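Subject: Protein record for review, amino acid sequence with backbone structure tokens
Why sent: The fold of this protein is of interest and is recorded here as tokens.
Notation: Tokens come from a learned vocabulary of local backbone shapes, not from coordinates.
Attached in line: The record itself begins immediately under this heading.
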Amino acid sequence: MNAADIFSMYERAAQASHIVCVTSRTEDSIIAQLDCKNGRGMVRLYALFPDIFLGFNEFSCRSFPSYPSYQGEAAGGIKISFCVDGCCEVKMSDHRYLCLEAGDVSIDTRTAEDTYTFPYDRFYGIEVFIHDSALKQIAPDMFKAVGIDIAVIRERYCHDGQSFIAKAGNKVKSIFLNIAEPFPECALNYFRLQVTELFFLLEYMEKPTEDEHRSFFTAGQVHIAKQVMNIITRDLSVRHPIHKLAKDFCVSPTSLKNYFQGVYGQRISVYLRGKRMDKAVEYLKEGSLPIAEIALSIGYENASKFAAAFKLAKGESPLEYRRKHRASL
């Protein structure tokens, strides 16, 4: 299918959804605004080579239904996804969950089957989609010149329908970050060069070991992670030992930690520390609650331990932060 057919299908699907509005379309690109219940999103799609597309997905919301995607995914195409910022969780066609966090790259032949959830209320991701028909036709001259065979990439990472997810290596990460900030005057050709290099690396570089692979999660595992998040953030003054939480959910502490980090992109301790600091900032800005009381309310034994943690996170003591904020009012 050519770009015009793909873009026309996308437009028709967008019109039928009533929540996706195509704002721009050219011969090589289409841009759509997405109206979320709790925020907004934007999708940009570029035709790079015959049946090979580059997509940018930017969301500032908590969730969004599966939006019109690149036609033909289920027919053997390949989707290479990279998370630039935030975190994304979605159930795939095999009923397992893909949880993509900042710096992750996934290579997949599955399709999204459910709502996209963004635990941090934001997500910026880049996707390269290779339509199945691209695997059956003559490769672009640029690919032939450097020895790229897309079928080899699919076989390396998605053999027998398997999926791949891991932290992107420095070279792959660099390519995606370059794509995120193109030269405006020649963006399309720049994208083509970067994606060609990406394909070359995926075909020829050393593949990450099994130990470096991230996991895909079942609905039950995602549910456990979300329940744990609700428990540990419900009352920040209460501390919940990992071993007790794990026992409550009948899993090992290691499994519990893996589920949580897979869904929320951070270790439990790091995630909880961030929530405590956010609440501390709220107290320091909005009221005159004594530092010692703030410390106890967010789970610190005393003011000195809280002050040390706050300074490490914010670069200044709670009192300095409060004085500075009040002086700026």
Q: What stands out?
A: The chain has twelve helices and eleven strands. The CA atoms of residues 269 and 290 lie 25 Å apart.
